[in-house]
Amino acid sequence: MKQSMAVKFWGVRGSIPSPGVSTKKYGGNTSCVSIHLDNEKTLILDAGTGIRELGKKLVAQKTDIFVIVTHIHWDHIQGFPFFIPIFQKDRVIYVFPYQQGETMFNSLFKQMDGAHFPVSMDRLPSKYQIITSDISEFMEKHGFCISRIATNHPGGAYGYRIENDGRTVVYLTDNELNPPEGKVNDFDSFVSFCKNADLLIHDAQYTQQDMPLKHGWGHSMISQSCELAVAAGVRRLVLYHHDPDRTDEQLDLLQEEAQIWFLQNKHDIQCAAAYEGMVINF
Ligand SMILES: [Zn+2]
Ligand SMILES: [Zn+2]
Questions:
Q1: With bands split at pLDDT 50, 70 and 90, how would you rate the model's confidence at 226?
Q2: Which residues have a beta carbon within 5 Å of ligand 1, which is an ion?
Q3: Is the pLDDT of residue 101 over 70?
Q4: Which of 95, 167, 221, 243 is the most exposed place for a label (fewest CB within 10 A)?
């Protein structure tokens, strides 16, 4: 029998939290997505402020927790000190440094130094383990087949392809598909990486109007994410890492425009803008 798999969105915003009346529908928390396997394992992608709410749900469960960060910009690590399971005695949590093989404690813990956060990591009662060995090999033992690709993003970042029992989710945030310089992977490489995925979660921070000024800042336009979804033949696209200044009304409109574009071009791809609380079951 197939294991159940659920993808949940806890923070969908890029750059900085943006709470307020104009963002309450899609949410103002920064990047965090979880993938749950059979209620036994929870894989967490990024530890932005959205991870705080996820932590409250996990505290009553006994699932193994795996935390993978795409990179260490604030909006991907800042929620971690508020992730309650790290304060649970004997709770097992596996954490992966963003640079493979890095022996230094990664930034999730380094920010808990007593100066930037009052509780330092040596006072955490949980049994956290920082895994510096090969992520694919380690996760395979736990039921996830994982591969990764370097994205086009200032400072560097990685996207992840996660497969389990014939289902595929690609998490590709903080990625400028066509940067003016410093391209580490081209469009075709991302097409291969995303090929035939059931779900593609992709950076869609900018619009056409934003781009002349923000070209080179490491994020994609919604239209570029849609083009990638078509070229890779994915079944479903979730627009992610919304700009902090994007209001609910604007996101409604941009989502509708993207859906109309797929229809007009006769592409059978479900497309939606990510919102806090969104759940996709496979
Ligand atoms: Zn980001
Ligand atoms: Zn970033």
A1: very high
A2: 14, 75, 174
A3: no
A4: 167
Contacts by 62-66, CB closer than 8 A, 24 or more apart: 63/36, 63/39, 64/40, 64/92, 64/94, 64/142, 65/91, 65/92, 65/93, 65/94, 66/41, 66/42, 66/93, 66/94, 66/96, 66/139, 66/142, 66/144
Q: How far apart are CA 6 and CA 255, in angstroms?
A: 22
Q: What integer best gives the mean pLDDT of the chain?
A: 94
Ligand at shortest distance from the CA of 76:
1
Strands of 270-273's sheet, edge to edge?
A: 145-150, 158-164, 167-172, 199-203, 236-240, 270-273
Q: What is the pLDDT of residue 102?
A: 60
From ligand 2's centre to the CA of 94, what distance in Å? 22
User: How far is 136 from 143, CA to CA, in rounded Å?
Assistant: 10
